[in-house]
Amino acid sequence: MKRHTIFGATAVIAMTLVLVSTPVNAATIWTESFDDALGFTTSEAFFSDGSGDFFGLYGVASDFGAGASPSAVKAYTAFDVVTGNILTGMDLDGEGATLPITLTWTGINITGLTGLQFSGDFAEFFDDPGDIDDADDMILIEYQIDGGGYQGLLAFEGGAFSNDPYNGYFMQDTDFDGVGDGTALGDAAQTFSQLIPGTGSTLDIRLTVSVNSGDEDFAVDNFIVVDAVPVELQSFSIE
After folding, report:
1. d(CA 58, CA 99)
2. Of 24, 116, 183, 192, which one is least surrounded by beta carbons within 10 A?
3. Measured between alpha carbons, how far is 117 from 197 in angstroms, rounded to an integer?
4. pLDDT-derived band of residue 135, with 50, 70 and 90 as boundaries?
């Protein structure tokens, strides 16, 4: 190591450069923008009572089945409802729907891909002192490869209850134990990402939602699966 004298003192100069692993050559292989009701199957048809019981697409081209666009859609932020739609719902069993409700996308081609990652935007509007209960409220993203059985990918469950087990938040359930313990959802959409382990030929994605009381709601948008190949970690020193 070279030693340099600066103003009569001896200083040791060393530098290590590290190239951090970042996704490169990321290719989008599947998207769901909820601009229409094509491309997925749902366990319940879209519906609305025109007020606070609804399930469907809201935005520039709202679709609530035979029902009128509901007046009680929450004032979410950071979603684009001017040029697109979001999937949203409130009090999902208020008009007789069987809970939970599922949406399923099947047959996504992943042949030869090894760096799969899912991301999506999620929100739940906060009404004081809180809406979400511990019992059955959930937002769950699952995946399966080549029909091998669904596995948890992202989950949001009740947590931080002001009247345990009631009046809480949707919080990310990081260990899939049924209790929210991570980042809380709020009025503004937040993007969550998760790696999809495994390889195969076809990928299926399933969204499961359940909110069953007044003011209990959810909103999602911009589901994306990419294949991202990271660069290798490299380091070198300058002495």
Report:
1. 21
2. 24
3. 8
4. confident
The angle at the Cα of 30, spanning 25 to 32, to the nearest 5 degrees, equals 130
How many Å is the Cα radius of gyration of the chain?
23
> What does the pLDDT look like over 57-104, one tens digit per residue?
999 999 999 999 999 999 999 999 999 999 999 999 999 999 999 999
Q: Strand, helix or coil at 108?
A: strand
Q: Is 143 strand, coil or helix? A: strand
The 3-state DSSP class for residue 150 equals: coil
In angstroms, the CA 61 to CA 29 distance is: 25
User: Is 199 strand, coil or helix?
Assistant: coil
Q: Which structural domains are found in the chain, ordered by start?
A: 24-231 (2.60.120.260)
Q: Mapping DSSP to helix (H, G, I), strand (E, B) and coil, where does residue 67 land?
A: coil
Residue linked to tokens 């081609």: 109
What local confidence, expressed as pLDDT, does residue 149 receive? 98
